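Spend some time on the protein that follows and explain the fold to me:
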Amino acid sequence: MSIQNNLQAVLKQIDGRAKLVAVSKTKPNEDLMQAYEAGQRVLGENKVQELVGKYESLPKDIEWHMIGHLQSNKVKYIAPFVSLIHGVDTEKLLKTINKEGKKNNRKIACLLQVHIAQEQTKFGFSEEELLNLLTPLLLSELKYVELKGVMGMATFTNDTDQIRQEFKSLKNVFDKLKTQVFVNDSCFSEISMGMSGDYQLAIEEGSTMVRVGSSIFGVRNYH
């Protein structure tokens, strides 16, 4: 199977119901260019150094998403160009992104990461933490951050009922934020959930954005 064929198969299954982020981490530029030539313009990376390198060497109309855990001290490297940061999981990171957005005179789009999995290893806010954090004061300070929605990762398990419940819980958090915090904010509209193994399920539960890597590029290259 070629990358182009894989991509077409995934897009056919998504059928326009969600935006596809093709997760290209650990893959060489040649693989990314195959996806690009097949029409894919949204690519996701999880390491800042790799993201910057690929941004510098690949076509400039690619929309780059930072999907991995992001440390505050690395924000400055991607602030000039990143299209969306998926995993904002602390107040400190939010404020750093705002600061770097100001330096680059651009609003940086972000998703708030919500902890929905049973595993402790996953990052993210609880619903309660988000409702306490997102005060009118804080939101007014974040002039260079555009909060576009929420992101979550389900538990790594074969139990589809559990995964479905976790996706449902993320949709509930989104709905609550939408009605209590972002009532008049049309930009707050994204629910990023679902990866190669569970994106169909995620779309059924309201995902607007799926992060698919191995189904397109094959298994990950571990260095």
Q: What stands out?
A: Residues 160-180 form the longest helix (21 residues). The two ends are 23 Å apart (CA to CA). Residues 3-217 form a domain with the TIM Barrel fold (CATH 3.20.20.10).
